[in-house]
Amino acid sequence: MEDLREHYSKETLNEKDLSSSPFTQFEKWFQNALDSRIKEPNAMILSTLGEKDIVDSRTVLLKGLEQEQFVFYTNYNSDKSKQLREHPNCSLLFLWLDLERQIRIQGKAEKLDASKSDEYFASRPRGSQLGAWVSDQSSRINSRDELEAKLKEVEQRFEGKEVSRPEHWGGFAVTPNHFEFWQGRPNRLHDRLVYEKEGSIWTIKRLQP
Ligand SMILES: Cc1cc2nc3c(=O)[nH]c(=O)nc-3n(C[C@H](O)[C@H](O)[C@H](O)COP(=O)(O)O)c2cc1C
Questions:
Q1: Is there an atom of ligand 1 within 6 Å of 138 CB?
Q2: Is the shortest distance between the CB of 65 and ligand 1 below 6 Å?
Q3: For 15-123+169-206, CATH number?
Q4: Is residue 188 annotated as part of the catalytic site, yes or no?
Q5: What is the pLDDT of residues 120-177, one digit of tens each?
Q6: Ligand 1 mean position to 77 CA, how many Å?
Q7: What is the pLDDT of residues 47-66, one digit of tens each?
Q8: Whole-Å CA distances, 102 to 94, 118, 183
Q9: What ranges do the domains of the chain cover?
């Protein structure tokens, strides 16, 4: 492990090239990630605060950036959802190693409007829709067989019918108040540019690497 040493030299990140809006800057980098065809550029690490101040992290998929909110979908009974209900402050992290880039976001999560969750749920493949009924996400299950049996039961229940959205499944929208755009540079002297919200204004500062 100690011999693994990557040299970062692909790009630079300068104040003059930054958009004044972190959302526009995010969209620009996201488009670069799409263009470079990296796998699942919308995968992001969501970190939350759990019971007894335990910090928890897992990957979720960004499914929209709408009205300056980052949207993902999940099971509302899952551990992450319980944690977010208790502590809405959370962080989102995108790591795009092929581009030598990282984006860190801090913000506050709230449940998405049911109508928006309905709309997105209706667009999902049928298998994923059935899966949302099958999985009681984050609860213990005795075996894989039990899960497969639940799937059969749900398939029968919805045979020949549209699969409705279960109430326990839907979106969260994260409203950011802090962004850091990180670009790897030679000699570990990376570029780190931070946006912070003061009132309705985003200010930009550079951090030491
Ligand atoms: C690439 C990837 C994408 C994922 N996307 C989602 C997602 O969008 N929503 C979700 O609930 N879980 C997603 N998961 C699973 C979560 O990482 C996690 O296992 C699950 O949500 C349970 O987390 P929790 O027990 O902390 O609530 C994804 C996992 C990976 C590896």
A1: yes
A2: no
A3: 2.30.110.10
A4: yes
A5: 999 999 999 999 999 999 999 999 999 999 999 999 999 999 999 999 999 999 999 9
A6: 13
A7: 999 999 999 999 999 999 99
A8: 6, 32, 7
A9: 15-123+169-206
- How many CA atoms does the CB half-sphere of 43 hold within 13 Å? 10
What distance in Å separates the CA atoms of residue 82 and residue 115, rounded to the nearest whole number? 21
State if residue 146 touches ligand 1 by the CB under 6 angstroms criterion.
no
Instruction: Indicate the pTM of the whole model.
Output: 0.97
Q: Three-state SS string across 182-195, please? A: EECCHHHCCEEEEE
User: pLDDT tens digit string along 72-105?
Assistant: 999 999 999 999 999 999 999 999 999 999 999 9
- Residue among 48, 51, 58 to mutate when testing ligand 1 (max atoms within 8 A of CB): 58
Give the Cα separation of 169 and 57 in Å (integer): 19
Residue in 85, 104, 188, 192 annotated catalytic: 188
